[in-house]
Design brief:
Blueprint: H1 6-16, H2 34-40, E1 48-50, H3 56-62, E2 65-66, H4 68-73, E3 78-81, E4 86-89, H5 92-99, E5 108-112, H6 116-127, E6 132-136, H7 140-150, E7 153-154, E8 161-166, H8 177-180, E9 191-196, H9 205-212, E10 216-218, H10 220-236, H11 242-248
Parallel strand pairs: 2-4, 5-6, 5-8, 6-7, 8-9, 9-10
Antiparallel strand pairs: 1-3, 3-4
The protein binds NADPH dihydro-nicotinamide-adenine-dinucleotide phosphate (NDP).
């Protein structure tokens, strides 16, 4: 959480929107204290909060007014205090759909991973009308459980699809994603678009290899900005300037 880019991104958007009295700040909270802290925030002048791991499940549990989307995914990342209760939404899922370069309806997808972000991705793709969603995970049982609950079909191999979505943490430890995922660079042209939830200071190897093959790419920072923008709208009822948000997180831009 200490490395979060959200304060820079959200505060830049607040300034650009002319919301001078608003401020977005980091608030480290130990998991057992989340309920108590959230109960105190409205009285302290907070309009809402983003929550990140490990709080996303508990945030949903304490909401009095969760969206159907957050309830289905089983996780919330956005809380809004409306004077009566706690509204909760999951903006990670619509951020994925908004980031794709073509409509999802009728498209096929391969999702890698079965953790929290994969749950959001599978739900979002199914909700947007994807024709077929296959889910691969290092631990196959988790892919099966996810599909039983949210839709999609588990697969032991990487199949061709319109959209490939990497929702695994593979590569974060410095290993090549091609060593741990069922992918090889020369077969990335079997996808029209490759999305990588992982983000860092540089373009991921997965996206660089896809882009080298003229495949459209969506990086984790795009998703971060889009989910942040949707949360911003929930907090302020104003659509933020996406370029301002992207610039504020100091992201790379591949040439
Ligand atoms: P979870 O911990 O819930 O899930 C992790 C997933 O990664 C599991 O499917 C796990 O498989 C898999 N995994 C972990 N290490 C490896 C490995 N070495 N090889 C293969 N698979 C591996 O994490 P999240 O779903 O919350 O996040 C996943 C990634 O997405 C993280 O990098 C996170 O930072 C990023 N993220 C980005 C967002 C954005 O806005 N850009 C938003 C949310 C997340 P298994 O089940 O076998 O353990």
């Amino acid at each position: 959480m200490g490395h979060s880019r959200s304060p820079a991104m959200q505060n830049a958007a607040l300034a650009a929107a002319g919301l001078a009295g608003w401020r977005y700040q980091l608030l480290p909270v130990a998991p057992p204290l989340l309920r108590e802290v959230v109960a105190a925030l409205p009285g302290a002048g907070f309009a809402g909060a983003n929550v990140t791991l490990p709080h996303k499940l508990e945030a949903l549990a304490l909401a009095t007014d969760p969206t159907a989307r957050a309830a289905a995914i089983g996780a919330a990342n956005t809380l809004v205090f409306d004077g009566e209760g706690v509204y909760a939404d999951n903006t990670d899922a619509p951020a994925l759909i908004a980031s794709l370069p073509f409509p999802v309806a009728g498209a096929t997808a391969l999702v890698l991973g079965a953790g929290g972000s994969a749950r959001g991705a599978v739900w979002a793709l199914a909700d947007a009308g994807a024709a077929d969603i296959l889910v691969w995970n290092r631990t196959p049982d988790r892919a099966r459980e996810l599909c039983d609950e949210l839709g999609g079909r588990p697969t032991p191999v990487a199949t061709p699809a319109d959209v490939l979505v990497n929702c695994t943490a593979a590569g974060l430890d410095g290993a090549s994603p091609f060593d741990v995922l069922p992918l090889t660079p020369d077969r990335l042209d079997r996808y029209r678009c490759v999305v990588d939830f992982v983000y860092g200071p540089h373009e991921s190897l997965l996206l660089a290899q896809a882009r080298a093959r003229n495949v459209d790419t969506v990086d984790g920072l795009d998703l971060l900005v889009k989910q942040g923008a949707l949360s911003f709208e929930r907090f302020t009822s104003i659509a933020p300037d996406l370029d301002v948000m992207r610039a504020a997180i100091g992201s790379y831009r591949p040439s």
